[in-house]
Design brief:
There is one protein chain. The chain is of the alpha+beta class. The protein has a single domain, classed as Bifunctional nuclease domain. Helices cover 27% and strands 27% of the residues. The protein is built from six helices and seven strands, in the order H-E-E-E-H-H-E-E-E-H-E-H-H. It has a seven-stranded mixed beta sheet with strand order 3-2-1-7-4-5-6.
């Protein structure tokens, strides 16, 4: 059994197996399109009409990327962006931990669609061995937004999300029926 001092001083080791990145998109930096939060819609996800969807758009509003979220992440995104209430930061510990370890999350890139899940890769600096980590987008968007991490995707990735994008565009144009928990009380809610 290791004592606390041994655990704390050992470097964190993360290994990416071939199968983990098998379906992952490869890209060049010039292929990346920066995305910003546009809003949250409910009733836009084809797999679940009550599942919230974070809408990301590029700076010119030419491209749209819908990101289906779980209810907890959607609630955090809305709560964090609501300037009328007291600040809520459930990621404060993570932010402080990264600062103390002198690590930084440089960017978040959408890299894979597997079934109904999108995956992002967080690119890190400040760690001698770990340069990135891949997680499901629905579990990481509030962290990315809290830490002001730039979000990116390729046109190819956004094209693969086109079916969902078309449904979201229709919803945002028609201002579809809202779930009662996401009534238009905030400018991010569509």
């Amino acid at each position: 059994m290791m004592d606390l001092k041994t655990i704390v001083t050992q470097p964190l080791q993360v290994y990416f197996t071939k199968t983990e990145s098998e379906g992952e998109e490869t890209f060049h930096a010039r292929d990346l399109v920066e995305l910003r939060i546009f809003g949250i819609a409910v009733g836009a996800a084809p797999m679940d009409a009550q599942r919230p969807v974070l809408i990301l758009k590029d700076l010119a509003h030419e491209f749209t990327l819908p990101v289906p979220l779980n209810a907890l992440e959607a609630g955090l995104v809305v709560a964090q962006s609501n300037k009328q209430s007291a600040p809520l930061n459930p990621h404060k510990f993570t932010e402080l931990l990264l600062q103390k370890l002198q690590m930084n999350i440089c960017q978040c890139v959408f890299v894979e669609i597997k079934g109904v899940h999108q995956y992002v890769r967080f690119y890190l600096s400040g760690h001698p061995q770990m340069t990135s980590i891949k997680v499901r987008a629905e579990e990481a968007m509030s962290l990315a937004l809290t830490l002001n991490i730039p979000l990116f995707a390729t046109r190819k990735f956004m094209d693969r999300s086109k079916v969902l994008t078309a449904e979201v565009e229709t919803l945002s144009q028609t201002q579809g029926v809202q779930h009662p928990h996401f009534q238009k009380f905030h400018h991010y809610v569509i």
